[in-house]
Design a protein that fits this description.
The protein is of the alpha+beta class. It has helices spanning about 5, 10-40, 75-95, 100-120, 160-190; strands at about 45-50, 55-60, 125-130, 135-140, 140-145, 145-150, 150-155. The longest helix has 30 residues, at about 10-40.
Length: about 200
């Protein structure tokens, strides 16, 4: 196939353009909302939107999702680039084979690009959506042979639009993979109603 053939507006190219547009839209919305947060919010105080349920709190997150700290900012930058390369490769290679999976990956790609842009520009990710969540308290104890230290979550970690897209994308990804595996299982093991008497 020549270079000009690959640039023709085929159904596959239209499909890929649609996925890229979704990723781009998430990226643009994420960056616009972060710029608004930087301009109008203070890192010292929270601005209530809906009582204590929803607040706007400017946070510069040097860690990962849910404020995890698995490594340095360089680690998260490298991980973001690696994830984006894998996602783009999978989408391009298997475009249209599993639309739910493609949608999930497009959401993840847009979110990863938004957070990567922050890391490259500021050295951290800008978070500002501060949402209260029903308290979670798991007491410490022994689970099998492991001493579990317990876990408490009083408020959801501050997040942004990119984090939301990544989270929704990951949930869709799991759903797509589960349904795909069940579909393959049903195709390999069809129910034979005629055998039942």
């Amino acid at each position: 196939m020549s270079w000009s053939d690959s640039l023709r507006w085929t159904n596959t190219n239209r499909y890929l353009f649609g996925l890229a547009s979704l990723s781009g839209l998430i990226f643009v919305i994420d960056q616009i909302t972060k710029q608004i947060a930087l301009k109008h919010l203070s890192a010292v105080t929270s601005t209530p939107v809906w009582d204590d349920l929803l607040r706007l709190t400017l946070v510069f997150n040097e860690g990962g999702a849910f404020s995890t700290r698995l490594g340095t900012s360089y680690f998260y930058t490298f991980a973001s680039v690696l994830v984006m390369i894998i996602v783009v490769t999978v989408i391009y290679r298997d475009a249209g084979k599993n639309r739910k999976l493609d949608l999930a990956l497009a959401l993840v790609l847009g979110g990863a690009l938004g957070n990567l842009t922050d890391r490259l520009q500021f050295g951290s990710v800008i978070d500002f959506i501060d949402f209260d969540f029903p308290d979670i308290a798991i007491p410490s104890g022994k689970i099998l042979f492991i001493n579990f230290p317990g876990y408490a979550l009083d408020r959801w970690p501050v997040f942004n639009v990119a984090d939301s897209a990544i989270t929704v994308g990951m949930v869709l990804l799991v759903v797509a993979l589960i349904f795909d595996s069940r579909k393959k299982h049903c195709e390999l093991n069809p129910v034979n109603d005629s055998a039942a008497v």
